[in-house]
Amino acid sequence: MIAILNTYRFRVRLPVSRTTRVLVGLTAALLLALGWAASSGALGISPWGVLRGQADPLSVQVWWQLRLPRLLLGVAVGAMLAGSGAAMQGLFRNPLADPTLLGLASGAGLFVAVWIVLFQDSSAGSLYGQFAAGFLGALCVCLIVFGIAKRQGGGSAAVMTLLLAGLAINTLAGASGGVLAFIASDEQLRQLSLWGMGTLTNALWRTTALALILIAAALWLLMRSARELDLLQLGEATAHAAGLDASRLKRRVVVATSLGVGLCVALTGVIGFLGLLVPHCLRLWLGPGHRLLPASMLGGALLLVVADTLARTVAAPAEIPVGLLTSLLGGPYFLYLLMRRNRAC
Which of 259, 264, 208, 275 has the alpha carbon at shortest distance from 71? Predict the structure, then answer.
């Protein structure tokens, strides 16, 4: 029996166990963060009291109708942004690829702003129109960036070109958003301002339920692409010789990323740098393989839940837009990556 146990202990210490340990640790940390977030806020609510029926009616209503869908939306959005960042870094073979830096979030945000200002009405279809606008905006930008990357090939010149393309798209989207803000009504202007800084305050069951289904589908498509993305790192010619259909893989990742990022932006606004910050930190533990995709999803969910809880509690009863907190974390880290990359060159 001792020999069997020793053999089992030896086997779990193989390199693959590092991924398991990281996934278990992230899952445990996410559950703890969810427990903390569920009980924190301007109104302190005990989740156990709500589940046992010992809370007052107001607390029960706030917890079920506002706080729980917000937590679920935070998990879904964080997982989608970080997972799409990891997938795009593999697709472009570029460690600086990110939905925010390459302009996907800005493109989706511009299309959503156009919908809010020019086409939105009070009908039930306005919500689905906003979802469709975010998806189309992210898809258009992703196709543009993908075409630029294909023409540039690889190397440091391609990296710089992608960053400049993202900067141009972000600038164009910002200027167009300014024009829309100028012609918007007071109510639309306030909606655009709060939404543009990134917030989870719009989490309601009728929006969250649909978002969870569609984001889960996008994450599933990305998870299916993990091993193929590993092959793509060897180069398209080598991957094709190994039986990989690179064009099919690219279409799948582009559609999944555009769908997920577009939905996230449509619901929460622009929450930046999760797709850059989380995969880079986890790559230090797990290496360059795309087994870090599920870990990135868990890490993104964890980071966004913690950031949103801080946004709700630091200045309570006021609320800080969560996109500002993630930008404060991600901006300095991006500068650090650029400086380290320049020293390496």
Answer: 208
Tokens representing residue 148 in the block: 């630029």
Q: At what angle do helices 292-313 and 322-344 cross, to 10 degrees?
A: 130
Burial 251-280 (b: 16+ CB within 10 A, else e): ebbbebbbbbbbbbbbbbbbbbbbbbbbbb
317 contacts 191 by C-beta, under 8 angstroms:
no
| Separation of alpha carbons 271 and 297, rounded Å | 15
Per the CB < 8 A criterion, the answer to whether 174 and 95 are in contact is no
Entry pTM: 0.84
Say how many CA atoms lie within 13 Å of 162 toward its Cβ: 31
Q: Tell me the CA distances in angstroms from 33 to 28, 30, 38, 69, 299, one per residue in order.
A: 9, 5, 8, 15, 11
Tens of pLDDT, residues 136-176: 888 888 888 878 777 766 555 566 677 788 888 888 888 88
The pLDDT tens digits of the residues spanning 255-290 come to 888 888 888 888 888 888 888 888 888 887 887 777
Q: Is the peptide bond before 317 cis (omega within 30 degrees of 0)?
A: yes
**Token pair of 113 as six digits:** 């702003």
Q: Which residues contact 301 (CB under 8 A, 6 or more apart)?
A: 30, 74, 75, 76, 78, 79, 82
Q: Is 245 helix (H, G, I), strand (E, B) or coil?
A: coil
Tally of CB atoms within 10 A around 155 = 9
